[in-house]
Amino acid sequence: MTKVKGIYVLIISVGEDIMVNIGALGNMKFDRGLYAYVGSAQGSLEKRVERHLGKDKRKFWHIDYLLDNDAAKVLKVFYKKAKKHEECQIAEKVGKAGVRIKGFGSSDCRCRSHLTKIQDYGFLEEFMKKLNWQNSRALKP
């Protein structure tokens, strides 16, 4: 992954039903399954994704709280060079592949959510290919 400003989608596996305190959102239940989180990095996309993959960090974003749980693992990252405003457009489209987790990752915008529990991974995979997103398969969370 090169240093770019852009948008990313983390594909996260939650291996068991968990309850996680998500900062200001409070306790939230996450059912076992696949989730897609849409974010942006307008400084360095590479550093932002590396931060998400690490466990030893100060919790700042909603996603930090979820990824801090041992049951949550990032399986794949899709990314592309893009401006911040595209983040919400992508979150809306990705939301069509499943059930949106209300308020998650969207405290700085008007979106319903930036985290979706995926029910149709095939749709999401095709959507990313159609938009020519890059993907990183060899991740070591």
| Class computed from helices, strands and strand pairing | alpha+beta
- Termini separation comes to 16 Å
pLDDT < 50 stretches: 137-141
What is the H/E order?
A: EEEEHHEHEEHE
Strand content: 25-35%
Mean of residue pLDDT values:
87
Radius of gyration: 14 Å
Oligomer type: single chain
Helix content: 10-25%
Main-sheet strand order equals 6-7-4-1-5-8
Q: What's the shape?
A: globular
The number of helices is 4
Q: Describe the biggest sheet?
A: 6 strands, antiparallel
Q: State the domain count.
A: 1
Task: Compute the number of strand runs.
Answer: 8
Helices and strands in order:
Layout: E1 6-14, E2 18-21, E3 27-30, E4 33-41, H1 45-53, H2 62-67, E5 72-81, H3 85-94, E6 98-100, E7 115-118, H4 121-130, E8 134-136
List keywords for this structure.
six-stranded antiparallel β-sheet; 25% helix; two-stranded antiparallel sheet; 141 residues; disordered C terminus; 8 strands; globular; alpha+beta
Kindly describe this structure.
The structure is a single chain. This protein has 141 residues and is α+β, with helices and mostly antiparallel strands. The chain has one domain. Helices cover 25% and strands 33% of the residues. The chain contains 4 helices and 8 strands; from the N terminus they run ββββααβαββαβ. It has helices at 45-53, 62-67, 85-94, 121-130, and strands at residues 6-14, 18-21, 27-30, 33-41, 72-81, 98-100, 115-118, 134-136. Strand 2 (18-21) and strand 3 (27-30) form a beta hairpin. The protein is globular and about 35 Å long. The model is unreliable at 137-141 (pLDDT under 50).
